[in-house]
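TL;DR need structure tokens for one chain.
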Amino acid sequence: MTKQDSQLVSTIITVYNGENYLSDAIQSVIIQDYPHIEIIIIDGGSIDESRRVAEQFGSSVRYYYQNNTGIAAAKNHGLELSKGDFFAFLDADDLWTRDKIQQQITVFNEDPTLDIVFSHVKQFHSSELNVEEKERIWCSNKLIPGVSAGTMLIKRESFFKAGLFDTQLRRGIFVNWYMHALEIGMRTHMLPNMHMWRRLHQTSNGIVNHDKSSDYVRMSKA
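>> reply
TL;DR here they are.
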């Protein structure tokens, strides 16, 4: 057994009014082939039954509630509470394949000089959408290289070299952080296979926050 095979992975799940999807997201982490995972759920001010859904999993998860101060603040709070040697992130409406973490740990075993391992993503329409809604929300049927928080596994020390997520942003939070990571020379690897399902629905973050394009302008200037 290598050192990486016994190290703890802190998985931070952020949720905001995600009662319809949260259980599936949590379950996709619990069933991971890799055994050493802690699950931290940060509820960013939900007014639905997200707490009840999370607490149904008992000691398998650690649930924390905070005021609605944005996704970046929620992720940062999870990081503060984490104990892991690696960090992984998952939105409450997305899913991982069973072998995601194990496949990424294997890559770290093969090349310990890496900082980050990503994987590909497949999008899907959520089951509650009707035909008209599905036509309005475009969904690619192709595998997408997932340079995103949801596909990333990163060493703890590597993450903090780039700093926390910018709480002033509501969109492009990961893009902003990743630009800093590249600037300081982090080494990355993209797995060729798909290990995350991205759910598309009426309240998906990219759809709800479509009016936050000024955040991208701010990042470009920075």
